Fold each of these.
Amino acid sequence: MQSDAKTTESLVELPKTLAETRSAIASGEVKAVDLAEGYYRRIEKKNPSLNVYLSLTRERALEQAGRVDAAAAKGDSLGPLAGIPVGIKDVLVMKGAPATAGSKILQGYEPPYDATAVSRLEAAGAVLLGKINCDEFAMGSSNENSAYGPVRNPVDPECVPGGSSGGSAAAVASNLAVATLGTDTGGSIRQPASFCGVVGVLPTYGRVSRYGLIAFASSLDRVGPFASNVKDAATLLGVIAGHDPRDATSSPAPVPDYAAEIDKPVEGLRIGVPAEYFAEGLDDEVRASIEAGIDSLRASGCTIQAISLPKTRYAIPTYYLLATAEASANLARFDGVRYGYRSASSATLAEMYRHSRDEGFGAEVKRRILLGTYALSAGYYDAYYLKAQQVRRLLAEEFLHAFAGVDAIVTPTSPIPAFKLGEKSGDPLAMYLADIYTVTASLAGICGVSVPCGTTKAGLPVGMQVLAGHMQEGTAFRVARAVEAAQGR
Ligand code: GLN
């Protein structure tokens, strides 16, 4: 069958769901190759202003699209993501494609292998368009820490898209990919999803392999999807989740068919609303949007229960101690010898290490290496690192206890909507506080979804965070889908 150029253009210009796009490809109405080319044309037009893609993997994408078209023409069975254009956050490696992690220190590095999440997407038929901008080593909440310039929020280009997976959220919001992968260590999927008005998923720790993820804080790092709607996000998670012998922390638990269960009625589900997430510092318009979302859950037959998570107040210091400690160890490998950037101006080996790290790392990364090294140093280990580990356990137990009484917990994803570029970049503490509602789930290892839930008067998106217990992604998706459906989507 001949592909109709107009059909392809309309698919690219008017974003469709993953299922619609896939069936247009399966029927031959649209060729995956044309669709990929259409997305590349769109990227060429829009990327200069949004700065979403750092590099394109055109050759690999077109080869894969060609394979999908050939399989469709033969009537072979197609994978769940057949022909779907997807973008990858540049902290996940793809064989032969530059991997920068948003850092100058990795300039020129081309990994010799694929991350597991990446190869699983491709095995399911996805067409990988390229590598996407992010905060340097995923450290940040605004995407302003990228060595390759900030990403702009497609909803309001004066605003940040959130971070650290700002590019992955912006790509979906501006339809520069049907879906993307991001990573979340303390909120880096959920917060940008909320800032850009898309769906972002924090899978349970261990649900998705970290193999091929450039590590920031290994006990917290998670790989997860972004999509324009809950069902697409669920489909993507189903593809990338599951045990991987290459990641010792990946869980052997079977992967349910998330997308199939998504429309199960939420009637009778018990939803916890923790007082601590609606306290001082919460923007009035965000509060109103989330309260309206909660009302819609009540109207769908959920039981809304006030709960308390008093240890929330310890979450930010605990997270920033542990994340920086792990980062200081993980980033020791970037020494100017093995990967990427090497300073040209050194007389001795020791100088080469020093200069390469000094010139290669940005200010926020250096700050974290220093903080983390301090917290791990002999005299302070017990007072800081060990104490933080103990508090982490208490936070996790508090969630366990809460989930004995409720099926899911809903909160605002972020206390504020997207802020202006430059507004917080000079104030690290203000930036850290932007994670106040997201770091708790990161520390506890539980899962969550950020789902669009209204907008402010200025038109900025608001996100609701739906948290569920370990491996309860299905419940989080159902609740998020109910919130989405109540808004007529
Ligand atoms: N904003 C948080 C930080 O800067 C979270 C980052 C992330 O989740 N990767 O650490």
Amino acid sequence: MTAQTPAPPVRQTIVQLLSQMRDGKEIREYLHRFSGVDQERFAVIKVGGAVIQDDLAGLASALAFLQTVGLTPVVVHGGGPQLDTALDAAGIATERVNGLRVTRQNAIPVIRDTLTEANLTLVDAIRNAGGRAAAVPRGVFEAKLLDEAILGRVGEPSRVRLDLVAAAARAGQAAILACLGETEDGCLVNINADVAVRALVHALQPYKVVFLTGTGGLLDEWGDILSSINLATDFDELMRAEWVNGGMRLKLEEIKRLLDDLPLSSSVSITRPSELARELFTHAGAGTLIRRGERIQSAGSKDGLDLAKLDGLVTKAFGRKPVAGYWDSLVVDRAFVTDSYRAAAIATRLDDWIYLDKFAVLDDARGEGLGRAVWHRLVDYAPRLIWRSRTSNPVNGFYFDECDGAVRRDEWTVFWRGEDIALSDMHAVVERAFALPPTLEAPQ
Ligand code: ARG
């Protein structure tokens, strides 16, 4: 043995996180936001048994990192694979009805011991990673048996005792809960982890609900992680989509159910342990963010628009004010604005083209996917679209991805979308776009 202590994994996480960020502004902003809620209400984090089994070190380091920055989430873990193995070893066959584990009396001691062991394994690992965690394997969920004849000792929470959770938070510890419930008279029952999470979320009303999984998010039809889902605009479409399989449909329904029960400001994130810090402390995140979300209003003139709010949005998004008289002379062809006025697209006319005059999205709205949602509405409305952007605009990467053609000249780039357009047909309108007077005050 050497006297040298290894660099704690927590430090690695912080270094990793900071190296991924352009500056500390985002992390400070989110830290401020997360610290502003009562600590037991900051986040409920659900961890599947498979993650404890396959990625214990990563999980422990991610959870320990949160205490390092003063946050105390409430963690609920399952133990599916561990239970399968233990019950198998005890000669008890695993049987499921509607996704619930049928639990006969003889399985209860095995379940109790296995979940308690998983609980302690996780608590120890968090402590070894430099975090503070309180083992709460039972005592939180009071439960009623669901249907003893069919399911055996499977319960549904009838009461959630928050005092243990609150005490841990007061002591600066993350409470680590297993899904063991007790009937009113103190007999142990097995509770499905998703059902336990729902009851806890209902009782706590947390700001964030996080699912830590091996896949790190919900996957789109090409197997890439979907960055954000706004249920108000996306839910029906996703539920209809052919590529959304049964498992994902159930997950989406479960998450919608969770969010319907929470304030609008709350959100669900699905990510993997190694990405937890990036998901929580950056706008862009790393995983899938799901919100109840807001709708996008469409207006055909200035009448339906709150111009003061739009002015605030544009000023904040670009860091510059519109030039004097801008709103007065604006002739709106079509505008798309989210309920909160945190993302908007304003289109006017340029000859016979639809001209995107302003596309303004606040940073946090970008994290929620609102910018993209507005963009989709816009391009559905205007399959042929032209716009311009300062060459220094950080959004240009997105514009280059989205456009069918672009011309760059000095400080401006003009972009357009539309099928079957010859470059020669673009000449006149592109020149018109270059020649438009600036609509925002000059950059400092
Ligand atoms: N950090 C913010 C949050 O946790 C935004 C996360 C954005 N994540 C994403 N996958 N789009 O609420």
